[in-house]
C-alpha cells in the first residue's frame, strides 16, 4: 500500500521542529559556528566608508566588473591585483529581526522535510522497515541540507572550514530527519 504526503504530515512537521531545535543547540550551546566570520582590524573605518555610499541592502562585489569581458581591461585587472577583492552583504540597519529569521529557518526545515517526504513516498510502501527508510531519507536530506553550500566556497570565497562546519550541520539534520521519518513511517496495519 502506497504512502501519501498526508500520511507523513506529522513526520514532516516534527522533522522540521527537531532540526530547528538541533540548529538552536548548534548555534547557542555548541557554538562551533562562531569561527565562521572574523572581525576586520579596521572595522570602524570600513563601516564608515561603506556607510558613506549609502548602499541599499544587497550583495556587492568589489572591485565591480559588471561583465566578464571587462576582465581583459588593464584597469580592471589592476583593481583586482591591488585588492581588496571582496563580496559584501549589506543588511538593513538595526538588530537582526530574530523572530522573523527563526520562523524562516523553521520553514526551511519543514520545506526540506516535505521534499524528502515526497521522494520517500515515491520509493517505499507502508510497512517498510526502519533502516530502509532511515538510509534513503538520510541521503536525500543530506543532499538537501549540505550540498548547496559548496558553490559558495568555490565562487564566493567562503572558507572551506566554514563549509566543513555546515556539512557537519547537514549530517546532523539528515540524521534527525531520517530518524523521525523512520520512527513515524506508516505501518501496514495503520
Mind explaining what this structure looks like?
The protein has 190 residues and is mainly alpha-helical. 61% of the residues lie in helices and 5% in strands. It contains seven helices and two strands; from the N terminus they run H-H-E-H-E-H-H-H-H. The chain has helices spanning 9-30, 43-52, 74-82, 98-123, 130-146, 150-155, 160-184, and strands at 58-62, 86-90. The chain has a two-stranded antiparallel ribbon with strand order 1-2. Helix 4 (98-123) crosses helix 5 and helix 5 packs antiparallel against helix 7 (160-184). The longest helix has 26 residues, at 98-123. The chain is elongated. The model has no long low-confidence stretch (mean pLDDT 96).
Total strand count, please?
Answer: 2
Strand content: 5-15%
Measured between the Cα atoms of the first and last residue, the distance is 11 Å
Shape: elongated
As residue ranges, the low-confidence spans are: none
Q: Helical region count?
A: 7
* Main beta-sheet annotation: 2 strands, antiparallel
SSE sequence, one letter per element: HHEHEHHHH
Rg is 22 Å
Order of strands across the biggest sheet? 1-2
Mean pLDDT: 96
**Computed structural class:** mainly alpha
Helical residues, percent: 55-70%
